[in-house]
Design a protein that fits this description.
80% helix; mainly alpha; 0% strand
Amino acid sequence: MAKKAKKAKKVAKKTRKTAAKTRKAAKKANSRNNKKAAKSRSKSKSRSNKGGSDNSPKK
């Protein structure tokens, strides 16, 4: 039983390490994608807002 428990502990440690790595990589990829998405969002916004000056709040 002790041997099995030891192995399980080792595996758990490895899994935790891998999970942390994956999380980090995912975070990086996510921020990259978010930057791209934000860029394309702002692009499309500026395109659609070019001719809409008749509903401006200024009087």
